[in-house]
Amino acid sequence: METLDDLFRRLEQLNDIGASLSNERDLDRLLEKILLAAKAITRADGGTLYLVSEDQQRLHFQIVRTDSLNIAFGGSSGQPTSGKFPDLALYNSAGEPNNTMVAVHAAITGKTVNIADAYTAEGFDFSGTRKFDERTVYRSRSFLTVPMQNHEGEIIGVLQLINALDSTNQVEPFNTADQRLAESLASQAAIALTNRQLVQQLEELFEAFIKLINLAIDEKSPYTGGHCQRVPELTMMLAEAVNATTTGPLADFKLTEKDRYELRIAALLHDCGKVTTPVHVVDKATKLQTLFDRIHLVDTRFEVIKRDAEVRMWQKVAGGHERSEAENELRAFCLQCDDDRTFLRKANACGERTRDEDLDRIKQIATKYRWQNIEGEDVPFLDANELENLSIRAGTLTADEREIINHHIVATIKMLEQLPWPKHLKNVPEYAGGHHERMDGKGYPKGLKREEMSWQARMMGIADIFEAVDRKRSPLQRRDEAIAGIGHSSEFHRKWAHRS
Question: Which segments of 61-116 does DSSP mark as H helices, in order?
Fold first, then answer.
């Protein structure tokens, strides 16, 4: 018979369990803790924790434990319950409550069921239990089935305990104290579970909203599309590799689950400021592109000056000039125009870095041809803006356009600093806002030096440049190269000091 001291001890254990449940962030581990705590507090040999499906039609086996049979499914066991235990239908095909099953009955009625011996109990179907006992040479005798009810009165799960054990490990019925303690634990567990599910749903909604923004950013350009998705993946791969490092300057750097989540959110948001960047700058595939590629205007001008040359040829012939000579001059002029047009098209496409001699030729083309614009004015073949764009040495952006692109990080910081971040995400603006800084202090927007940057911000900067350097390689390949660099930190820092 249980003494008063034993009861007080179990009550203290119940209080400790409640505190433990409120601190658990991982949903699977929380469910496992609930079942293990219920087993411990009632001295049960086995137990199952069911969750009600979202459509309120089924009970799903979430955690299954039987100590004497060494059975463990779900939670940290590494053995999933899916495929092992079919869901229990709450209603039959006629829509009537499936009250013959004790767990379903508890879920539907919201009442605890305490059965002293399943083999002699009436009103419930224990045929499945008997088949299980035959296969395992087990005797499922006493059952305590407790519904888990949330703050809105909804049943969200069922806690079922099997075979209460006395001090000699003999099976006995669950007594009144066991039932009260299990009901109290189920109530605390329902609160903890509901809170964790609510937090998880809010986190999923928050991340979905972030991904929605990233999708909008990536859809702006097929040339950088997917960047906002790939950088977080590479950042977290790099973070896990750094976390596993046991030597060098990063040997003492360790990430908790909260740290990982904070870094992941920062990585997802690192380019959110690009929503403010004009599409024609983000998506500038050629040097002359704005809302359209102006190379087509240049093509048209070549056709115009060739037609003008042809008109001049016939004017010469009409004036008594030798026709064959005039035609040869026209042919040579047109060939030169075609060659210059091909050259400008190649320069516009930005296949290679522009050489000095190519820049000189672009300037010559800009002035050696003249044409009449729509106002009838005689103007240089290329205007100042076109000449500036075609003279870009590398890439497709002018200095002004690069400033526009670079402004996205300023916009990112401004946007993120406006949000009321909770304590566990307070570093998101710093991590996300530092991915364009350089360890030599020549980065932007703040010109931070290495010692002024967190490891997380450096990781993100490295991930960002690795993703941009070669988008043809997989994230795993890019991660391995980054990890190899970190393993030889001095060489890595020398190669990537301008970005990390």
Answer: 102-109
